[in-house]
Amino acid sequence: MAADAKLKDAEELIKKANKLTKLSFFKWSTDWSSATALYEQAAIAFKLAKQPDKAKDSYERAAEGQERLSSPWQAAKNLEAAGGLAKELGKFDEVLDIYRRASSLYGECGMPQPSADALAKGARALEEANPDEALKLYLDSCEILEDEGKEQMAFETYRAAMSLYLKQERFLDAANMLLRWGLAADKSKAVHSQSKAYLSAIIVYLYAHDLKQAEQCYNDCSQVDAFANNEHCSCAFELLRAYREGDAEGIKHAVKSSSLISHLDHMIVRLAKQLPSGDVEALASNVDNLNLADDDFT
Asked: Which residues lie closer than 8 Å to 227 by C-beta, 6 or more apart?
């Protein structure tokens, strides 16, 4: 009975709101201010009545009202609530559209952080149903913060995108995302995060059986003092040396004995524990000599 009463109350609120937004022969003006408040109340009431579809629609109507009232911030908040309900309902095409609209509205307010966060929320909601679109949202979220010079605020999004690439077995993309994260960390003066990102990228290349690219990555990253003078660089060198020597046991030992590797992202640790994942001797014999030397770092 309580649920029925809540549902009846919600439907009455919607009726009142709709009347305020419609013109007729006898009614020549609308009252979106009052209607928007009613739509927001109805959305809450429908949620309590366990009617997520109607609650979602009410939040979207409330968002429309807030836009008409020149309140993009409140409109975006209502859309985020609608997006969460769209995910619950499995309406993933709507999830994508709703969170993009919310992000755009936050952008109109001059608020890059909430704008980027809205895209990241949408990406998390879409990871299983539509990973390709989720990745696009993650990348767009990062780009917003990078354009604003707020790279440090994107660290969790870099991690989420990298993890999703790994789940999709898109190892080159995952490594590139780690390098992008490392560059962002460099700009943010986050030396520890930068070094972890570079070591992680090398591990991803090795897991993908690309020793040549792993060594090239090591050499490129070693040009950055923050990495070259860091223990993560030494760890990468020891790992690569074992690969160059075709020493499978040495690779396992380098991973197992490293406290640095054990403190990387859990998905990277999982890959590292499976090294070597290919024919080490074949990799060592096929790769060009990139002249790794013990004094490559100090």
From this structure: 182, 194, 195, 198, 221, 233
Mean pLDDT, residues 110-125: 97
CA distance 18 to 141: 35
User: According to the model, what pLDDT value does residue 144 have?
Assistant: 98
Confirm whether 207 is domain-assigned. Answer: yes
Neighbours of 75 (CB within 10 A): 26
Domain of 273 in residue numbering reads as 156-298
Does the residue 187 lie in any domain? yes
Q: pLDDT at position 41, please?
A: 96
- Rounded to an integer, what distance in angstroms lies between the CA atom of residue 67 and that of residue 72? 5
Is 286 a member of any domain?
yes
Cα–chain center distance at 149? 18
Kindly report, residue by residue over 155-195, the tens digit of the pLDDT.
Answer: 999 999 999 999 999 999 999 999 999 999 999 999 999 99
Number of domains in the chain: 1
Task: Using alpha carbons, select from 264, 142, 258 the residue that is nearest to residue 195.
Answer: 264
Return the CA Rg of the chain. 26
Cβ neighbours of residue 53 closer than 8 Å, sequence gap 6 or more: 85, 89
Number of other CB atoms surrounding residue 122 within 10 Å: 30
pLDDT value for 290: 46
Contact 171, 204 (CB under 8 A): yes
In which element (H, E) is residue 269 found? helix 266-272
Q: State the CATH number of the domain containing residue 226.
A: 1.25.40.10
